[in-house]
## 1
Amino acid sequence: MTNNLDKNIIEFIKKQQVLSLSTAVDNRPYSCNCFYAYDSKNNWLICTSEHETKHIQDLKLNNYVSGTIYRVKKLSGVVAGIQFNGYMREAKDGEFQRAKKVFYSRYPHLVGNKAPLWIIDLTFIKFTHNKLLGFGKKLVWQKENTQ
Protein backbone atom coordinates (compact mmCIF):
# COMPACT_ATOMS: atom_id res chain seq x y z
CA MET A 1 0.00 0.00 0.00
CA THR A 2 1.58 3.28 -1.09
CA ASN A 3 1.56 6.45 0.97
CA ASN A 4 -0.99 5.18 3.51
CA LEU A 5 -3.88 4.78 1.10
CA ASP A 6 -6.96 3.83 3.12
CA LYS A 7 -8.02 0.18 2.74
CA ASN A 8 -11.62 1.24 2.00
CA ILE A 9 -10.40 3.15 -1.05
CA ILE A 10 -8.33 0.19 -2.25
CA GLU A 11 -11.23 -2.24 -1.81
CA PHE A 12 -13.58 0.09 -3.68
CA ILE A 13 -11.21 0.56 -6.63
CA LYS A 14 -10.56 -3.18 -6.90
CA LYS A 15 -14.29 -3.99 -7.08
CA GLN A 16 -15.13 -1.67 -9.99
CA GLN A 17 -14.26 -2.18 -13.67
CA VAL A 18 -14.80 1.07 -15.60
CA LEU A 19 -13.33 4.51 -15.10
CA SER A 20 -14.14 7.78 -16.77
CA LEU A 21 -10.99 9.53 -17.96
CA SER A 22 -10.62 13.21 -18.79
CA THR A 23 -7.82 14.92 -20.67
CA ALA A 24 -7.42 18.59 -21.54
CA VAL A 25 -5.44 20.34 -24.25
CA ASP A 26 -5.67 24.07 -25.03
CA ASN A 27 -8.51 24.46 -22.51
CA ARG A 28 -10.57 21.85 -24.35
CA PRO A 29 -11.54 18.89 -22.15
CA TYR A 30 -12.27 15.44 -23.50
CA SER A 31 -13.69 12.42 -21.66
CA CYS A 32 -13.96 8.71 -22.34
CA ASN A 33 -14.59 5.44 -20.51
CA CYS A 34 -12.06 2.64 -20.09
CA PHE A 35 -11.96 -0.77 -18.49
CA TYR A 36 -9.16 -0.81 -15.94
CA ALA A 37 -7.28 -2.99 -13.50
CA TYR A 38 -5.79 -1.71 -10.27
CA ASP A 39 -2.20 -2.40 -9.19
CA SER A 40 -2.20 -1.81 -5.43
CA LYS A 41 1.57 -2.39 -5.19
CA ASN A 42 2.30 0.68 -7.34
CA ASN A 43 -1.05 2.49 -6.94
CA TRP A 44 -1.61 2.44 -10.70
CA LEU A 45 -4.76 2.24 -12.74
CA ILE A 46 -3.98 0.25 -15.90
CA CYS A 47 -6.04 0.42 -19.07
CA THR A 48 -5.65 -0.36 -22.74
CA SER A 49 -6.24 1.99 -25.65
CA GLU A 50 -5.04 2.54 -29.20
CA HIS A 51 -2.52 5.28 -30.00
CA GLU A 52 -4.95 6.92 -32.45
CA THR A 53 -7.68 7.67 -29.89
CA LYS A 54 -8.31 11.28 -28.93
CA HIS A 55 -7.46 10.81 -25.25
CA ILE A 56 -4.12 9.14 -26.06
CA GLN A 57 -3.28 11.84 -28.62
CA ASP A 58 -3.99 14.43 -25.91
CA LEU A 59 -1.36 12.81 -23.65
CA LYS A 60 1.37 13.92 -26.04
CA LEU A 61 0.60 17.53 -25.04
CA ASN A 62 -0.61 17.07 -21.46
CA ASN A 63 -0.33 13.78 -19.59
CA TYR A 64 -1.94 15.06 -16.39
CA VAL A 65 -5.40 13.45 -16.31
CA SER A 66 -8.43 13.32 -14.07
CA GLY A 67 -11.27 10.89 -13.77
CA THR A 68 -13.88 9.13 -11.74
CA ILE A 69 -14.74 5.61 -10.71
CA TYR A 70 -18.20 5.03 -9.32
CA ARG A 71 -20.29 2.13 -8.20
CA VAL A 72 -23.04 1.11 -10.55
CA LYS A 73 -25.91 -0.58 -8.76
CA LYS A 74 -29.65 -0.21 -8.54
CA LEU A 75 -30.75 3.13 -7.25
CA SER A 76 -30.35 2.77 -3.52
CA GLY A 77 -29.60 6.25 -2.23
CA VAL A 78 -25.98 5.28 -1.68
CA VAL A 79 -23.46 7.54 -3.38
CA ALA A 80 -20.08 5.85 -3.73
CA GLY A 81 -17.13 6.76 -5.91
CA ILE A 82 -13.74 8.34 -6.30
CA GLN A 83 -12.42 11.33 -8.14
CA PHE A 84 -8.76 11.09 -9.12
CA ASN A 85 -5.84 12.91 -10.70
CA GLY A 86 -2.65 11.39 -12.01
CA TYR A 87 -0.01 11.23 -14.69
CA MET A 88 -0.70 8.83 -17.56
CA ARG A 89 1.96 7.13 -19.67
CA GLU A 90 2.40 4.12 -21.90
CA ALA A 91 3.66 1.06 -20.05
CA LYS A 92 7.18 0.25 -21.25
CA ASP A 93 9.93 -2.24 -20.34
CA GLY A 94 9.66 -3.51 -16.75
CA GLU A 95 6.52 -1.48 -16.15
CA PHE A 96 4.93 -3.16 -19.15
CA GLN A 97 5.56 -6.63 -17.69
CA ARG A 98 3.95 -5.63 -14.39
CA ALA A 99 1.03 -3.86 -16.11
CA LYS A 100 0.47 -6.83 -18.43
CA LYS A 101 0.35 -9.26 -15.51
CA VAL A 102 -2.11 -7.12 -13.53
CA PHE A 103 -4.39 -6.17 -16.44
CA TYR A 104 -4.66 -9.59 -18.11
CA SER A 105 -5.14 -11.43 -14.84
CA ARG A 106 -8.27 -9.29 -14.42
CA TYR A 107 -9.34 -9.59 -18.08
CA PRO A 108 -8.00 -12.93 -19.38
CA HIS A 109 -10.41 -12.85 -22.34
CA LEU A 110 -8.45 -9.83 -23.69
CA VAL A 111 -5.05 -11.55 -23.76
CA GLY A 112 -4.83 -11.39 -27.58
CA ASN A 113 -5.49 -7.65 -27.54
CA LYS A 114 -2.77 -5.74 -29.42
CA ALA A 115 -3.55 -2.26 -28.05
CA PRO A 116 -0.89 -0.76 -25.77
CA LEU A 117 -1.28 -0.70 -22.01
CA TRP A 118 -1.37 2.63 -20.20
CA ILE A 119 -0.56 3.46 -16.59
CA ILE A 120 -2.23 6.18 -14.58
CA ASP A 121 0.12 6.93 -11.70
CA LEU A 122 -2.33 8.30 -9.14
CA THR A 123 -1.47 11.54 -7.33
CA PHE A 124 -4.81 12.44 -5.72
CA ILE A 125 -7.95 10.56 -4.69
CA LYS A 126 -11.15 11.80 -3.07
CA PHE A 127 -13.42 8.96 -1.92
CA THR A 128 -17.13 9.40 -1.24
CA HIS A 129 -19.30 6.66 0.25
CA ASN A 130 -22.25 8.03 2.19
CA LYS A 131 -23.20 4.62 3.66
CA LEU A 132 -19.68 3.73 4.82
CA LEU A 133 -18.38 7.20 5.76
CA GLY A 134 -21.59 9.11 6.45
CA PHE A 135 -23.33 11.80 4.43
CA GLY A 136 -21.01 14.57 3.24
CA LYS A 137 -17.86 12.87 4.55
CA LYS A 138 -14.89 12.23 2.26
CA LEU A 139 -11.54 10.48 2.49
CA VAL A 140 -8.77 12.38 0.69
CA TRP A 141 -5.39 10.95 -0.26
CA GLN A 142 -2.50 12.89 -1.82
CA LYS A 143 0.68 11.30 -3.12
CA GLU A 144 3.81 12.59 -1.45
CA ASN A 145 6.38 14.23 -3.73
CA THR A 146 4.14 14.59 -6.79
CA GLN A 147 5.73 15.67 -10.06
## 2
Amino acid sequence: MEVLLGAAGGMIIAVLMMAWLGTFARWFIVPGVDGGFVKDYGVLIKAHIDFVLMSLYCLGFYAAAKAANVEIPVLACWLIAIGGFTNPGVFVIAAFKPDFWQALWVKVYTGLSFIVTTAGFIWAASILVGRAFSAA
Protein backbone atom coordinates (compact mmCIF):
# COMPACT_ATOMS: atom_id res chain seq x y z
CA MET A 1 0.00 0.00 0.00
CA GLU A 2 3.04 2.27 0.28
CA VAL A 3 2.64 2.76 -3.47
CA LEU A 4 -0.21 5.12 -2.57
CA LEU A 5 2.06 7.20 -0.34
CA GLY A 6 4.76 7.46 -2.98
CA ALA A 7 2.24 8.36 -5.65
CA ALA A 8 0.65 10.99 -3.41
CA GLY A 9 4.08 12.53 -2.80
CA GLY A 10 4.75 12.67 -6.54
CA MET A 11 1.36 14.22 -7.19
CA ILE A 12 1.94 16.85 -4.50
CA ILE A 13 5.20 17.77 -6.24
CA ALA A 14 3.24 18.05 -9.50
CA VAL A 15 0.68 20.26 -7.70
CA LEU A 16 3.44 22.62 -6.63
CA MET A 17 4.95 22.65 -10.13
CA MET A 18 1.57 23.53 -11.64
CA ALA A 19 1.09 26.27 -9.02
CA TRP A 20 4.45 27.87 -9.80
CA LEU A 21 3.96 27.54 -13.54
CA GLY A 22 0.52 29.13 -13.23
CA THR A 23 1.96 31.90 -11.09
CA PHE A 24 4.64 32.67 -13.67
CA ALA A 25 2.07 32.51 -16.46
CA ARG A 26 -0.47 34.84 -14.86
CA TRP A 27 0.74 36.86 -11.87
CA PHE A 28 4.52 37.27 -12.06
CA ILE A 29 4.64 37.24 -15.81
CA VAL A 30 7.74 35.64 -17.25
CA PRO A 31 8.07 36.42 -20.96
CA GLY A 32 7.40 33.36 -23.05
CA VAL A 33 5.50 31.48 -20.35
CA ASP A 34 2.12 33.26 -20.57
CA GLY A 35 0.72 32.79 -24.04
CA GLY A 36 4.00 31.27 -25.24
CA PHE A 37 4.63 28.15 -23.21
CA VAL A 38 1.27 27.96 -21.42
CA LYS A 39 -1.43 28.17 -24.08
CA ASP A 40 -4.51 27.61 -21.89
CA TYR A 41 -4.25 28.89 -18.32
CA GLY A 42 -7.71 27.56 -17.38
CA VAL A 43 -6.76 24.01 -18.32
CA LEU A 44 -3.52 24.38 -16.36
CA ILE A 45 -5.65 25.15 -13.30
CA LYS A 46 -7.76 22.04 -14.01
CA ALA A 47 -4.56 19.96 -14.05
CA HIS A 48 -3.52 21.52 -10.75
CA ILE A 49 -6.87 20.74 -9.12
CA ASP A 50 -6.95 17.21 -10.54
CA PHE A 51 -3.48 16.48 -9.13
CA VAL A 52 -4.67 17.78 -5.73
CA LEU A 53 -7.73 15.52 -5.81
CA MET A 54 -5.80 12.46 -6.95
CA SER A 55 -3.19 12.92 -4.20
CA LEU A 56 -6.00 13.21 -1.65
CA TYR A 57 -7.60 10.01 -2.98
CA CYS A 58 -4.28 8.18 -2.55
CA LEU A 59 -3.84 9.48 0.98
CA GLY A 60 -7.49 8.82 1.81
CA PHE A 61 -7.42 5.21 0.62
CA TYR A 62 -4.16 4.61 2.48
CA ALA A 63 -5.46 6.14 5.73
CA ALA A 64 -8.83 4.40 5.51
CA ALA A 65 -7.21 1.01 4.90
CA LYS A 66 -4.83 1.50 7.82
CA ALA A 67 -7.69 2.61 10.09
CA ALA A 68 -9.81 -0.37 9.02
CA ASN A 69 -6.82 -2.70 9.40
CA VAL A 70 -7.15 -4.07 5.86
CA GLU A 71 -4.70 -4.31 2.99
CA ILE A 72 -5.51 -2.94 -0.44
CA PRO A 73 -3.88 -5.23 -3.02
CA VAL A 74 -0.70 -3.84 -4.58
CA LEU A 75 -2.18 -4.05 -8.09
CA ALA A 76 -5.17 -1.94 -7.03
CA CYS A 77 -2.76 0.59 -5.52
CA TRP A 78 -0.79 0.71 -8.75
CA LEU A 79 -3.97 1.24 -10.77
CA ILE A 80 -4.88 4.18 -8.53
CA ALA A 81 -1.35 5.58 -8.73
CA ILE A 82 -1.14 5.27 -12.52
CA GLY A 83 -4.56 6.85 -12.95
CA GLY A 84 -3.61 9.56 -10.49
CA PHE A 85 -0.88 10.69 -12.87
CA THR A 86 -2.47 9.94 -16.24
CA ASN A 87 -5.84 11.63 -15.63
CA PRO A 88 -4.35 15.05 -14.76
CA GLY A 89 -1.74 14.40 -17.45
CA VAL A 90 -4.43 14.92 -20.07
CA PHE A 91 -4.99 18.45 -18.73
CA VAL A 92 -1.26 19.15 -18.53
CA ILE A 93 -0.80 18.31 -22.20
CA ALA A 94 -3.88 20.35 -23.15
CA ALA A 95 -2.54 23.40 -21.29
CA PHE A 96 0.46 23.45 -23.63
CA LYS A 97 -1.20 22.15 -26.80
CA PRO A 98 -4.96 22.87 -26.79
CA ASP A 99 -5.64 21.29 -30.20
CA PHE A 100 -4.32 17.89 -29.12
CA TRP A 101 -7.89 16.80 -28.20
CA GLN A 102 -8.50 16.09 -31.89
CA ALA A 103 -5.98 13.23 -32.09
CA LEU A 104 -7.25 9.65 -31.85
CA TRP A 105 -4.40 8.58 -29.56
CA VAL A 106 -5.53 11.19 -27.03
CA LYS A 107 -9.04 9.78 -26.95
CA VAL A 108 -7.66 6.25 -26.51
CA TYR A 109 -5.20 7.43 -23.82
CA THR A 110 -7.97 9.29 -21.97
CA GLY A 111 -10.33 6.31 -22.13
CA LEU A 112 -7.67 3.89 -20.90
CA SER A 113 -6.70 6.28 -18.13
CA PHE A 114 -10.29 6.51 -16.92
CA ILE A 115 -10.68 2.72 -17.05
CA VAL A 116 -7.46 2.10 -15.09
CA THR A 117 -8.36 4.71 -12.48
CA THR A 118 -11.94 3.51 -12.11
CA ALA A 119 -10.84 -0.11 -11.74
CA GLY A 120 -8.38 0.83 -8.99
CA PHE A 121 -10.89 3.01 -7.14
CA ILE A 122 -13.67 0.42 -7.30
CA TRP A 123 -11.32 -2.37 -6.20
CA ALA A 124 -10.00 -0.39 -3.21
CA ALA A 125 -13.42 0.98 -2.28
CA SER A 126 -15.00 -2.48 -2.43
CA ILE A 127 -12.42 -3.74 0.08
CA LEU A 128 -13.25 -0.87 2.44
CA VAL A 129 -17.00 -1.38 2.00
CA GLY A 130 -16.58 -5.11 2.59
CA ARG A 131 -14.66 -4.40 5.78
CA ALA A 132 -17.33 -1.97 6.95
CA PHE A 133 -20.11 -4.51 6.45
CA SER A 134 -18.15 -7.36 8.02
CA ALA A 135 -17.50 -5.25 11.10
CA ALA A 136 -21.16 -4.33 11.53
## 3
Amino acid sequence: MTFTYQTSRLSVVEVFRGTRETDILVSITKLLTPKVVESLPQYFRNINSISDAECWLKKMLPESRLFVVRHTGNNMIIGFVFVFVESNTDAHVGYLLGEPYWGKGYATELLKGLIDFINNENKINLLIAGVATNNIVSSRLLNKLGFIKSDSENNEIVFYKYQLS
Protein backbone atom coordinates (compact mmCIF):
# COMPACT_ATOMS: atom_id res chain seq x y z
CA MET A 1 0.00 0.00 0.00
CA THR A 2 1.08 3.55 -0.63
CA PHE A 3 0.07 6.72 1.15
CA THR A 4 -2.77 8.51 -0.61
CA TYR A 5 -4.03 11.50 1.39
CA GLN A 6 -4.21 12.76 4.93
CA THR A 7 -6.49 15.09 6.85
CA SER A 8 -5.98 16.43 10.37
CA ARG A 9 -7.20 13.17 11.96
CA LEU A 10 -7.32 10.65 9.13
CA SER A 11 -4.90 8.83 6.86
CA VAL A 12 -6.56 7.46 3.73
CA VAL A 13 -4.63 4.80 1.82
CA GLU A 14 -5.54 2.98 -1.37
CA VAL A 15 -5.70 -0.81 -1.23
CA PHE A 16 -4.39 -2.71 -4.24
CA ARG A 17 -5.09 -6.18 -5.61
CA GLY A 18 -3.19 -8.84 -3.77
CA THR A 19 -3.51 -7.05 -0.42
CA ARG A 20 -4.22 -9.53 2.36
CA GLU A 21 -3.20 -7.56 5.42
CA THR A 22 -4.76 -9.15 8.48
CA ASP A 23 -5.71 -5.83 10.09
CA ILE A 24 -7.70 -4.87 6.99
CA LEU A 25 -9.52 -8.21 6.91
CA VAL A 26 -10.29 -8.08 10.64
CA SER A 27 -11.51 -4.49 10.28
CA ILE A 28 -13.85 -5.49 7.45
CA THR A 29 -15.51 -8.03 9.77
CA LYS A 30 -15.78 -5.49 12.61
CA LEU A 31 -16.90 -2.42 10.64
CA LEU A 32 -19.47 -3.94 8.27
CA THR A 33 -22.11 -4.34 10.99
CA PRO A 34 -25.80 -4.70 10.12
CA LYS A 35 -26.50 -1.06 11.03
CA VAL A 36 -23.59 0.25 8.91
CA VAL A 37 -24.53 -1.77 5.81
CA GLU A 38 -28.34 -1.69 6.04
CA SER A 39 -28.70 0.49 2.93
CA LEU A 40 -25.73 -0.92 1.02
CA PRO A 41 -25.78 -3.73 -1.57
CA GLN A 42 -26.29 -7.30 -0.40
CA TYR A 43 -22.62 -8.26 -0.78
CA PHE A 44 -21.74 -5.87 2.08
CA ARG A 45 -23.83 -7.95 4.48
CA ASN A 46 -23.04 -10.97 6.63
CA ILE A 47 -19.27 -10.48 6.60
CA ASN A 48 -18.55 -12.47 9.75
CA SER A 49 -15.22 -14.19 9.14
CA ILE A 50 -11.80 -13.56 7.62
CA SER A 51 -12.86 -15.79 4.71
CA ASP A 52 -15.98 -13.63 4.18
CA ALA A 53 -13.77 -10.51 4.33
CA GLU A 54 -11.40 -11.96 1.73
CA CYS A 55 -14.33 -12.67 -0.61
CA TRP A 56 -15.66 -9.13 -0.11
CA LEU A 57 -12.23 -7.64 -0.79
CA LYS A 58 -11.83 -9.77 -3.95
CA LYS A 59 -15.16 -8.40 -5.19
CA MET A 60 -14.46 -4.76 -4.31
CA LEU A 61 -10.96 -4.36 -5.72
CA PRO A 62 -11.69 -5.05 -9.41
CA GLU A 63 -14.80 -2.86 -9.48
CA SER A 64 -13.57 0.25 -7.67
CA ARG A 65 -10.69 2.03 -6.05
CA LEU A 66 -10.87 1.03 -2.40
CA PHE A 67 -9.33 3.15 0.34
CA VAL A 68 -8.77 2.26 3.98
CA VAL A 69 -9.46 5.07 6.46
CA ARG A 70 -7.20 5.07 9.52
CA HIS A 71 -7.33 7.35 12.53
CA THR A 72 -3.91 9.01 12.72
CA GLY A 73 -3.93 9.04 16.53
CA ASN A 74 -4.01 5.27 17.00
CA ASN A 75 -3.65 3.94 13.40
CA MET A 76 -6.97 2.04 13.80
CA ILE A 77 -9.01 1.40 10.66
CA ILE A 78 -12.31 3.25 11.12
CA GLY A 79 -13.81 3.01 7.65
CA PHE A 80 -13.55 2.65 3.89
CA VAL A 81 -13.96 4.85 0.81
CA PHE A 82 -14.95 3.58 -2.64
CA VAL A 83 -14.42 5.36 -5.96
CA PHE A 84 -15.84 3.79 -9.11
CA VAL A 85 -14.85 5.60 -12.30
CA GLU A 86 -17.91 5.34 -14.52
CA SER A 87 -16.54 7.23 -17.50
CA ASN A 88 -13.37 9.16 -18.18
CA THR A 89 -14.75 12.16 -16.33
CA ASP A 90 -17.36 10.86 -13.84
CA ALA A 91 -16.84 8.86 -10.65
CA HIS A 92 -19.26 7.38 -8.15
CA VAL A 93 -18.06 7.76 -4.57
CA GLY A 94 -19.15 6.09 -1.39
CA TYR A 95 -17.91 5.69 2.13
CA LEU A 96 -18.65 3.92 5.35
CA LEU A 97 -17.49 4.45 8.89
CA GLY A 98 -17.83 2.08 11.80
CA GLU A 99 -20.63 2.92 14.23
CA PRO A 100 -18.28 4.12 17.03
CA TYR A 101 -17.04 6.85 14.66
CA TRP A 102 -20.41 8.33 13.71
CA GLY A 103 -21.27 11.87 14.77
CA LYS A 104 -17.68 12.95 15.40
CA GLY A 105 -17.05 14.90 12.17
CA TYR A 106 -14.99 12.15 10.54
CA ALA A 107 -17.29 11.83 7.52
CA THR A 108 -17.05 15.56 6.79
CA GLU A 109 -13.28 15.49 7.14
CA LEU A 110 -13.03 12.33 5.03
CA LEU A 111 -15.15 13.64 2.17
CA LYS A 112 -13.50 17.08 2.11
CA GLY A 113 -10.15 15.31 1.82
CA LEU A 114 -11.49 13.00 -0.89
CA ILE A 115 -12.79 15.94 -2.94
CA ASP A 116 -9.39 17.65 -2.70
CA PHE A 117 -7.54 14.42 -3.52
CA ILE A 118 -9.64 13.67 -6.62
CA ASN A 119 -9.54 17.31 -7.71
CA ASN A 120 -5.71 17.27 -7.49
CA GLU A 121 -5.54 14.15 -9.67
CA ASN A 122 -7.15 16.24 -12.45
CA LYS A 123 -8.82 13.24 -14.06
CA ILE A 124 -12.41 13.43 -12.83
CA ASN A 125 -14.83 16.33 -13.41
CA LEU A 126 -17.94 15.05 -11.64
CA LEU A 127 -18.46 13.11 -8.42
CA ILE A 128 -21.72 11.23 -7.93
CA ALA A 129 -22.88 9.93 -4.55
CA GLY A 130 -25.94 7.76 -4.02
CA VAL A 131 -27.65 7.85 -0.64
CA ALA A 132 -30.59 5.84 0.68
CA THR A 133 -33.61 8.14 0.99
CA ASN A 134 -33.81 7.38 4.72
CA ASN A 135 -30.16 8.36 5.33
CA ILE A 136 -30.82 11.99 6.29
CA VAL A 137 -27.40 12.46 7.92
CA SER A 138 -25.47 11.59 4.75
CA SER A 139 -27.83 13.70 2.63
CA ARG A 140 -27.22 16.70 4.88
CA LEU A 141 -23.48 16.12 4.77
CA LEU A 142 -23.40 16.00 0.97
CA ASN A 143 -25.47 19.20 0.78
CA LYS A 144 -23.15 20.90 3.27
CA LEU A 145 -20.13 19.98 1.14
CA GLY A 146 -21.65 21.41 -2.03
CA PHE A 147 -23.15 18.31 -3.65
CA ILE A 148 -26.34 19.09 -5.56
CA LYS A 149 -29.33 16.75 -5.41
CA SER A 150 -30.17 15.45 -8.88
CA ASP A 151 -33.44 14.21 -10.28
CA SER A 152 -33.91 10.49 -9.83
CA GLU A 153 -36.59 8.00 -10.71
CA ASN A 154 -35.41 5.67 -7.96
CA ASN A 155 -37.57 5.93 -4.83
CA GLU A 156 -34.97 4.27 -2.59
CA ILE A 157 -31.79 6.17 -3.54
CA VAL A 158 -31.14 9.89 -3.95
CA PHE A 159 -28.19 10.90 -6.13
CA TYR A 160 -26.02 13.94 -5.47
CA LYS A 161 -23.47 15.46 -7.84
CA TYR A 162 -20.40 17.54 -7.18
CA GLN A 163 -18.75 19.44 -10.03
CA LEU A 164 -14.97 19.59 -9.63
CA SER A 165 -12.97 22.57 -10.87
## 4
Amino acid sequence: MAQKCDMDLEREVMDQLKVAMKAKDHKRMEALRAIKSAILNAKTASERQEFDEETQLKILQRLVKQRLDSMQIYQGQNRMDLAEEEELQAKIIAEFLPKQLSDEEIEQKIEEIIAKTGASSMKDMGKVMGLASKEMAGKANNKTISVLVQKKLRSDL
Protein backbone atom coordinates (compact mmCIF):
# COMPACT_ATOMS: atom_id res chain seq x y z
CA MET A 1 0.00 0.00 0.00
CA ALA A 2 2.92 2.36 -0.69
CA GLN A 3 1.81 5.84 -1.66
CA LYS A 4 3.31 8.03 -4.37
CA CYS A 5 3.13 11.24 -2.39
CA ASP A 6 2.98 11.90 1.33
CA MET A 7 -0.34 13.70 0.99
CA ASP A 8 -1.83 10.36 -0.02
CA LEU A 9 -0.17 8.68 2.96
CA GLU A 10 -1.35 11.41 5.29
CA ARG A 11 -4.86 11.26 3.86
CA GLU A 12 -4.92 7.47 4.21
CA VAL A 13 -3.70 7.70 7.82
CA MET A 14 -6.32 10.37 8.62
CA ASP A 15 -9.10 8.32 7.00
CA GLN A 16 -8.10 5.23 8.95
CA LEU A 17 -7.75 7.30 12.12
CA LYS A 18 -11.35 8.50 11.74
CA VAL A 19 -12.53 4.91 11.28
CA ALA A 20 -10.55 3.81 14.35
CA MET A 21 -12.02 6.69 16.39
CA LYS A 22 -15.56 5.74 15.42
CA ALA A 23 -14.82 2.12 16.30
CA LYS A 24 -13.15 3.23 19.55
CA ASP A 25 -10.10 1.14 18.59
CA HIS A 26 -7.58 2.82 20.90
CA LYS A 27 -4.61 0.60 19.95
CA ARG A 28 -5.05 1.37 16.24
CA MET A 29 -5.57 5.09 16.97
CA GLU A 30 -2.29 5.16 18.90
CA ALA A 31 -0.34 3.58 16.00
CA LEU A 32 -1.95 5.86 13.40
CA ARG A 33 -1.24 8.92 15.52
CA ALA A 34 2.40 7.82 15.74
CA ILE A 35 2.60 7.76 11.92
CA LYS A 36 0.93 11.17 11.66
CA SER A 37 3.29 12.59 14.28
CA ALA A 38 6.40 11.15 12.58
CA ILE A 39 5.38 12.70 9.25
CA LEU A 40 4.74 16.09 10.86
CA ASN A 41 8.07 15.93 12.72
CA ALA A 42 9.90 15.07 9.50
CA LYS A 43 8.21 17.95 7.68
CA THR A 44 9.12 20.37 10.46
CA ALA A 45 12.73 19.18 10.51
CA SER A 46 13.18 19.38 6.75
CA GLU A 47 10.91 22.36 6.01
CA ARG A 48 9.51 20.39 3.05
CA GLN A 49 5.78 19.99 2.59
CA GLU A 50 5.94 16.76 0.57
CA PHE A 51 8.15 13.70 0.62
CA ASP A 52 8.91 11.18 -2.08
CA GLU A 53 8.00 7.54 -1.65
CA GLU A 54 11.51 6.59 -0.50
CA THR A 55 11.42 9.11 2.37
CA GLN A 56 7.96 7.92 3.42
CA LEU A 57 9.19 4.32 3.46
CA LYS A 58 12.14 5.30 5.64
CA ILE A 59 9.84 7.05 8.13
CA LEU A 60 7.52 4.03 8.31
CA GLN A 61 10.42 1.57 8.54
CA ARG A 62 11.95 3.59 11.37
CA LEU A 63 8.66 3.48 13.27
CA VAL A 64 8.33 -0.29 12.79
CA LYS A 65 11.95 -0.84 13.85
CA GLN A 66 11.47 1.27 16.98
CA ARG A 67 8.41 -0.80 17.95
CA LEU A 68 10.19 -4.11 17.34
CA ASP A 69 13.26 -2.98 19.30
CA SER A 70 11.02 -1.94 22.20
CA MET A 71 9.20 -5.27 21.97
CA GLN A 72 12.50 -7.15 22.36
CA ILE A 73 13.49 -5.02 25.35
CA TYR A 74 10.13 -5.66 27.01
CA GLN A 75 10.41 -9.38 26.32
CA GLY A 76 13.86 -9.38 27.93
CA GLN A 77 12.33 -7.72 30.99
CA ASN A 78 9.51 -10.28 30.98
CA ARG A 79 6.89 -7.55 30.34
CA MET A 80 4.80 -9.48 27.82
CA ASP A 81 1.86 -7.06 28.13
CA LEU A 82 3.99 -4.16 26.84
CA ALA A 83 5.78 -6.38 24.29
CA GLU A 84 2.44 -7.43 22.77
CA GLU A 85 1.34 -3.81 22.53
CA GLU A 86 4.53 -2.84 20.68
CA GLU A 87 4.15 -5.82 18.34
CA LEU A 88 0.56 -4.84 17.53
CA GLN A 89 1.60 -1.27 16.76
CA ALA A 90 4.43 -2.51 14.52
CA LYS A 91 1.93 -4.63 12.58
CA ILE A 92 -0.47 -1.71 12.13
CA ILE A 93 2.31 0.61 10.92
CA ALA A 94 3.66 -2.13 8.61
CA GLU A 95 0.28 -2.19 6.83
CA PHE A 96 1.43 1.00 5.07
CA LEU A 97 4.65 -0.62 3.81
CA PRO A 98 4.94 -2.70 0.63
CA LYS A 99 4.84 -6.49 1.00
CA GLN A 100 8.10 -7.64 2.56
CA LEU A 101 10.36 -9.97 0.59
CA SER A 102 11.28 -13.39 1.99
CA ASP A 103 14.94 -14.24 2.68
CA GLU A 104 14.94 -16.41 -0.45
CA GLU A 105 13.63 -13.52 -2.59
CA ILE A 106 16.20 -11.16 -1.08
CA GLU A 107 18.97 -13.69 -1.73
CA GLN A 108 17.85 -14.09 -5.36
CA LYS A 109 17.85 -10.30 -5.91
CA ILE A 110 21.31 -10.03 -4.33
CA GLU A 111 22.63 -12.73 -6.67
CA GLU A 112 21.22 -10.79 -9.64
CA ILE A 113 22.83 -7.56 -8.41
CA ILE A 114 26.18 -9.27 -7.83
CA ALA A 115 26.05 -10.68 -11.39
CA LYS A 116 25.01 -7.27 -12.79
CA THR A 117 27.79 -5.38 -11.01
CA GLY A 118 30.46 -8.05 -11.43
CA ALA A 119 31.16 -7.96 -7.68
CA SER A 120 33.62 -10.63 -6.60
CA SER A 121 34.89 -9.73 -3.12
CA MET A 122 34.08 -7.85 0.06
CA LYS A 123 35.70 -4.77 -1.56
CA ASP A 124 32.57 -4.58 -3.74
CA MET A 125 30.21 -4.59 -0.75
CA GLY A 126 29.39 -0.87 -1.02
CA LYS A 127 28.53 -1.11 -4.70
CA VAL A 128 26.23 -4.11 -4.12
CA MET A 129 24.63 -2.61 -1.00
CA GLY A 130 23.91 0.68 -2.77
CA LEU A 131 22.02 -1.04 -5.57
CA ALA A 132 20.35 -3.59 -3.29
CA SER A 133 19.13 -0.93 -0.85
CA LYS A 134 17.66 1.10 -3.69
CA GLU A 135 15.98 -1.86 -5.44
CA MET A 136 14.53 -3.34 -2.24
CA ALA A 137 13.68 -0.10 -0.43
CA GLY A 138 10.73 -0.69 1.86
CA LYS A 139 10.54 -4.35 0.90
CA ALA A 140 13.44 -5.63 3.00
CA ASN A 141 15.33 -4.66 6.11
CA ASN A 142 18.78 -3.20 5.31
CA LYS A 143 20.37 -5.26 8.08
CA THR A 144 19.05 -8.47 6.49
CA ILE A 145 20.26 -7.32 3.08
CA SER A 146 23.71 -6.52 4.50
CA VAL A 147 24.08 -9.92 6.19
CA LEU A 148 23.07 -11.76 3.01
CA VAL A 149 25.36 -9.63 0.80
CA GLN A 150 28.31 -10.37 3.10
CA LYS A 151 27.49 -14.08 3.07
CA LYS A 152 27.28 -14.14 -0.75
CA LEU A 153 30.44 -12.12 -1.31
CA ARG A 154 32.41 -14.29 1.14
CA SER A 155 31.15 -17.54 -0.41
CA ASP A 156 32.07 -16.35 -3.92
CA LEU A 157 35.74 -16.12 -2.93
